[in-house]
Amino acid sequence: MKIGILISGRGSNMVALVDAVKRGEVPDSEVAVVISDKPTAAGLEKARKCDVETLVIERRGRSREEHDAEMIAELRKRDVELVCLAGYMRLLSKDFIHAFPDKIINIHPSLLPAFPGLNVQQQAIDAGVKTSGCTVHFVNEDLDAGPIILQREVEVKDNDTAETLADRILEQEHGAYVEAVRRIVSEARVASDSM
Ligand code: GAR
Questions:
Q1: C-beta of 170 in contact with ligand 1 (< 6 A)
Q2: Are 86 and 17 in contact (CB under 8 A)?
């Protein structure tokens, strides 16, 4: 299965996926391209060092639909079947979501449906929850609300700041994202073998 990864920044989840695919932990798959909407995203250089093709597709004043149409075209050119959002901080258009039905997934640093949106580690601390974590989910038209694939829990400590909590959640995100992709690829393989 060809995988396309969308990023906007640091790209640590992207690197975790690329490394796992290269190590053979996600059989029968390949990361075909990493696309960033930000030319300054640190993840771009990391992807290049991993020998993965990178593209920068900026919004440049275009509508969301025009921007997404260019991304759809580039992903289709490379026969991408699974799109992984890895810190991609922009909403996708309906057109994009319908272009890859049930094949767009996202990782989010809270136990959804708790704390969708932004600054979610601070939201968790402010709410006083004792457990937070991360969620890998399918992307639909509603923000951070698609069907959940898997979650991993992380304890919220009394002295946590948003940064310390984010760091401990991120450690869990990398393994969770690899596990979710492995499941999706293997389910797709079972489905195609039985056809
Ligand atoms: C990760 O914590 C990811 O869960 C979060 O952004 C960070 C990206 O880090 N995504 C969201 O908040 C999406 N709603 P990374 O660029 O190092 O993977």
A1: yes
A2: yes
